[in-house]
Amino acid sequence: MPKQIFVNLPVNDLNRSVDFFTKLGYAFNPDFTDENATCMVISDTIFVMLLTETFFKGFIKNEICDTKKYTESITCLSAESREEIDELVQKAKDAGATIPNEKQDHGWMYGHGFQDLDGHYWEFSFMDFGAMPQ
């Protein structure tokens, strides 16, 4: 069985977060969804658990990061093309995300991202290994 990853993120309003990520094209696994959490499916092996802040606090001893002041992490996902990245970032912006940084174009590597409604930073990257400098 291949390794899987389950990224766990606290959210202020679960329904609002589900609506936001649905607008970006993501689906949710109903087997792992209730009033406290939902499982967003990124791929066959990548999942994001969106947990209400109250439920999330049950798993930690310290405070939840205030993403208005601090960046807790950058979740970076690969993309099939530059166009896919631009479309996804535009959908996120249209759905209420903020765009804190400009696109990064290094020729063979391209990236852009957004902060979701709860301030979690998402980055998307496309790499053309055939054009990578030697």
Automatic annotation (TrEMBL):
Pfam families: Ble-like_N (PF22677). This is VOC family protein. It comes from the Bacteria. Residues 3-127 form the VOC domain. InterPro entries: Glyas_Bleomycin-R_OHBP_Dase, Glyoxy/Ble-like_N, VOC_core. It comes from Flavobacterium qiangtangense. Gene3D superfamilies: 2,3-Dihydroxybiphenyl 1,2-Dioxygenase, domain 1 (3.10.180.10).
